[in-house]
Structures are given as structure tokens and as C-alpha cells.
Amino acid sequence: MQKVAEAYTGETLGLVNPYEPKVVNSDADAISCLADSIKLMANADYFIGIDEDWRFRGAEIEKNVARSYGLKIIPVSFKWVCPDVDERYTWNRILSVCGDE
Q: Residue 74 in contact with residue 5, Cβ under 8 Å?
């Protein structure tokens, strides 16, 4: 995502990455991770987020915070950063809608 953002802005960017591998066992854990992410945004000039934020809990909230507080938003397509996950997600979504027959 950083390379896409640097190509977009023409600047070398320092990355504040809130996405550390964590096991999230509950909604309380997920909210805590979201809070940590929003805290890190206080030191950012840009918000680099996935364009398909509706796919993930919290991602849309992060983008709304960035917009509300005037951060420049750089949307990156999820399929560019995680193509293997995107493919599995799409296939699982088709199966959940159509059944697995």
C-alpha cells in the first residue's frame, strides 16, 4: 500500500502501520484494535485505506475519521494488496449467496 501511495503522491512516505498480526477473540478486542488504529492517525498526513472498506469492520470507520479530520485519503483496491484473499473472499461470497451445490 505504501508504494501505491508514494506513486500517487510523488512523495516518500513514512508508514504508520496499525495492522500488526493480532488474534482478535471478541468484539472488545476488535474495538481496542480500532481505537489503536485511530490513535495512530493523529500523527498522519495521509490515510491509505482499502477502497472496499465496507468489506471489513472498522475500515469504514477509519476512513470516516480520516475524512472528518482532514487527512488526505488514498484509496487502494483490496485486490491490489491482497489478491489471494480477494479471490477467496469472492468465491466464499458466491457460495454463501448461491449455495454450495
A: yes
Rg (alpha carbons) of the chain, rounded to whole number: 15
Domain that holds residue 64: 2-98
pTM: 0.69
Structure confidence by residue, pLDDT tens digits, 8-28: 788 887 777 666 666 778 888
CA distances from 95 to 10, 11, 34, 84, 98 (A): 41, 42, 29, 17, 5
Distance of CA 90 to the CA centre of its chain: 17
Total of domains in the chain: 1
**22 with 31: CB under 8 angstroms?**
no
The answer to whether 33 touches 79, Cβ cutoff 8 Å, is: no
